[in-house]
Amino acid sequence: MAGEGLRGRLGNAAGAFTSNARNPNLRRAQLSFLAAWTAEWTFTVGLGIVAYRDGGATAVGLVGLLRMAPSAILAPCPPGCSNSTVYMYTSPSPVEIGPMLGSAPAGLTGAVDDHSADALLTSAWLRRHADDAALWHPPELTPGLARTEGWTFGAA
Questions:
Q1: What percent of the chain has pLDDT over 90?
Q2: pTM value?
């Protein structure tokens, strides 16, 4: 990474902004997020003004509660917040998926914890697709973007 001090971090940030500004697809995606967030906040503020005008602070609180209730009810509970825990790897097990992807059996038996399952599935997938150059050299991954965003994939 270029420079660990403030100057290096500012240089990395400037490089990221520059690579985003030069890439029309990234620019378009960021502008669409900006438009969506702006519209959402405009609606929220407008709704709050109307609620306050018609019912005061209590109405604003009620409207906010009603807007958040579906998300609170439907959002998944983070691990440890209740006695029910949902595991991603129920069937088939990672021990069975590896051979399906062309990897030799791992030699494991019984339950596999989630971290080991992640490692098994990832290594089996990587082994199967390691020779597919299109996956590792996408045309959108410019050298500048690789320098600033390569940490996402653990490589630059």
A1: 16
A2: 0.40
